[in-house]
Write a structure and sequence with these properties.
The chain is an alpha+beta fold and 201 residues long. 27% of the residues lie in helices and 33% in strands.
Length: 201
């Protein structure tokens, strides 16, 4: 499914559009962007279009395009949703480097976590980051994520092996981090359809 429009102070989360596939695919051409992602090589345009189409039909995923200053800068989502066990996996990609270091990831993760715990029946979100991606870790901590383990020497980058750090946030962790006390984000419109594959996180 695609997620509903959610307006934050810095970012606007909205359903992705088919014509944005080429821009999304181009982000993976930059090694600096993919340095700390699980996916290292750019997809073809056809592959990205197929990913968007399949995402739109997946009832166990919710994705958003991330807008900043009125332009597309990334994607984020909740995927691999297990409705029975009430947990899912989250991930984010800010592909437009001009939008880095502006606090976007921290805010969008807070918006996404709030949606998961206030609008869905989920009780836990799982995520992670490649060792050295301190920006991702700082953003996750703001929403209550905690480190819960490591897959040692899981990813090869720049001639050395790096750990894959596993993180998670429980509903009560989010509440303790102040999530339950924050004003509700502004939502608009019903959920459409879509999903971010684990390849992006």
């Amino acid at each position: 499914m695609y997620g509903p429009v959610i307006q934050g102070k810095l970012v606007r989360l909205r359903p992705p559009r088919p014509e944005e596939a080429a821009q999304m695919a181009s982000w993976f051409e930059d090694l600096e962007v993919t340095e700390r992602l699980l996916r290292r090589f750019p997809p073809t345009l056809a592959q990205e279009q197929e990913w968007l189409e399949k995402s739109g039909k997946d009832a166990n995923t919710i994705i958003w395009a991330v807008e900043f200053d009125g332009r597309l800068v990334g994607v984020t989502g909740i995927h691999d949703i297990d409705w029975a066990q009430q947990h899912a996996v989250t991930g984010t990609l800010i592909g437009d480097k001009s939008a880095w270091r502006k606090g976007l990831a921290g805010e969008l993760m807070q918006l996404r976590t709030e949606f998961a715990f206030r609008q869905l029946t989920l009780r836990k979100l799982n995520s992670g980051y490649v060792e050295g991606n301190e920006a991702s870790w700082r953003a996750q901590r703001k929403s209550g994520y905690r480190e819960v383990g490591r897959r040692r020497q899981e990813q090869f980058r720049d001639g050395r092996w790096l750990d894959l750090v596993m993180t998670e946030v429980l509903r009560e962790d989010w509440a303790a981090a102040g999530g339950a006390q924050r004003p509700k984000a502004t939502e608009a419109g019903p959920a459409a359809r879509g999903r971010p594959a684990a390849r992006r996180r």
